[in-house]
Amino acid sequence: MFSVNWIFDIFYCNLNIIIIMPEISFIIPTYNRLKIVLKTISLIRENYPQAEIIVVDDGSQDETEKLLKNKQNNLFLYLRNPINQGKGASLRKGFLAAQGKYLIFTDDDLPYGIKGINLAVKALKEGHPIVMAQRDRFYDNNIKKIGRIVFNFIFKTFLGIKEKDTSRIKRI
Predict the structure, then answer these.
(1) Which site from 57, 135, 141, 143 is most exposed, i.e. has the minimal number of CB atoms within 10 Å?
(2) pLDDT in the model for residue 108
């Protein structure tokens, strides 16, 4: 006579569960920039089809939730803050949800471009535990690049800062 426990043990031991974790997770915070984040998602998916993409909506008032909420699957996760909590809260939420071996944070406008992402992925795979990119190397838009140079010059001049990338200073 077989007991229920014995039968359960047989099925439990023979049950093979395979969980495939993504190698790379992209964490993208956004706020009221649906068209921009859609373009970024498309570029990342085109270049990294097996990557996990996590978009953290920081309480957008546009159509972001309506459009992205229903697109979720095993490689795309949409998270939402009920109210605007800031970029830090959105990043934390995304990092906690990420499943990838390598976690890559990028703004919703993909300021480093795919070229910058490729360099970061290469460095991570070479064993570097942390990779930081400098924005102004990868801007495609010359007007933004000129604006950033002028802003950085004024910012550094008035504050006497010698840091090369002032965008990093502003976030601290």
Answers:
(1) 143
(2) 94
Tally helices (H) and strands (E) across the chain: 7, 4
Strand, helix or coil at 164? coil
Say if CB 132 and CB 104 are below 8 A apart. no
CA distance 87 to 30: 8
Specify the range with the lowest mean pLDDT, choosing from 93-102, 134-143, 152-161: 134-143
Residue 160 reports pLDDT greater than 70: no
Q: Which residue has the tokens 């007007």?
A: 143
Residue 27, helix vs strand vs coil: strand
User: In 10 A of CB 64, how many CB atoms?
Assistant: 24
Pick the CATH number of 24-133 from 3.80.10.10, 3.90.550.10, 3.90.226.10, 3.40.640.10: 3.90.550.10
pLDDT over threshold 50, residue 147: yes
Q: Mean pLDDT score of the chain, rounded to an integer?
A: 81
In whole angstroms, give the CA distance from residue 49 to residue 55. Answer: 16
**Model-level pTM?**
0.70
